[in-house]
Amino acid sequence: xxxxxxxxxxxxxxxxxxxxxxxxxxxxxxxxxxxxxxxxxxxxxxxxxxxxxxxxxxxxxxxxxxxxxxxxxxxxxxxxxxxxxxxxxxxxxxxxxxxxxxxxxxxxxxxxxxxxxxxxxxxxxxxxxxxxxxxxxxxxxxxxxxxxxxxxxxxxxxxxxxxxxxxxxxxxxxxxxxxxxxxxxxxxxxxxxxxxxxxxxxxxxxxxxxxxxxxxxxxxxxxxxxxxxxxxxxxxxxxxxxxxxxxxxxxxxxxxxxxxxxxxxxxxxxxxxxxxxxxxxxxxxxxxxxxxxxxxxxxxxxxxxxxxxxxxxxxxxxxxxxxxxxxxxxxxxxxxxxxxxxxxxxxxxxxxxxxxxxxxxxxxxxxxxxxxxxxxxxxxxxxxxxxxxxxxxxxxxxxx
Length: 400
Ligand code: CTP
Hints:
The protein is α/β, with parallel strands linked by helices. It is built from 14 helices and 19 strands. Strands 12-11-8-13-16-17-18-19 form an eight-stranded mixed beta sheet, sandwiched between helices. Strands 2-1-3-4-5 form a five-stranded parallel beta sheet, with helices on both faces. A two-stranded antiparallel sheet has the order 6-7. A hairpin with a 5-residue loop joins strand 6 and strand 7. It binds cytidine-5'-triphosphate.
């Protein structure tokens, strides 16, 4: 079988060097990659590097190998075009359909999915001109990955960093797997909670649970690939930040509630994949609780935590907002799931059976998605990503 053809567009930013790593990942995973740098990008990384790593010529002009009509053919043949880094200038050109070099011509002729990974200084990213160009590109069906927050060129930090090449590769892999389908969550803001809360007892101890965050992170990654703006509220997860997601780190259930409610204000969908502790210690001991010879420990009194899913469901931040819950059950899985769906008042409940060696920390899952109309969507045993895609299929259908 022919290798899938990918065009890697590189525009002129300091992060161009990171595109070498993205190129490696794409070629090593069996893609035929044609690099199309802009003239400015060649100031940062030379054509020899792109050519040697990709096995193809890597010019920026339409005047080389003219007999092959590269300004049309490269775009036409591609199954994916990814521009990383995409500068403010490149986004502006793409949004306005300019065609003054090989990359902009390629973008105009491509009929396949297009992913932009912008990287620039925070001021340039936040400028209304850039934001309008990004909105235009998204409206036309491109996946524009939100830049990461962190160290920028020079001493400043902020939003504008190119996400890790490995994470951009993950987006590309998913977009390619979806084929020519349009990104059905484009223009949508989705909020996902992931991981497990920890309720402190004293400065060194907490009540926690075994959630790894893998399912919530899989939801975030698949939503980015489907074009959504993603806020990921992550409770105590050590997983790498998914490219394109705004990640808010939290510790306790109360912190998680605050972050989710705030992000949900303008969200089209909220998916509560986090394992939120139902109870927290009534008292927090400011100093470490010490054992005392000959004395039994004091019992730990607990108080209820807010039920975030029930609150979101009862008090929708905007009309038509879709709220999704998860339920981990050990017995009478479906009956308990149905009762929980009714009790929480959400639109969809993903029910899975848990126990030793099941679900927690595993990259695989098996579930049934319940809806209030009585429908059941079984999801066979498989990657957590596949379950995530079923959830987004059902959410997208509800959003219309
Ligand atoms: N959840 C929540 N806030 C809580 C507890 C849970 O938002 N304080 C959310 C979880 O994120 C999940 C869903 O509710 O989406 C199911 O949580 P679960 O703890 O299984 O439900 P409970 O109602 O606590 O049911 P039970 O403990 O009786 O199984």
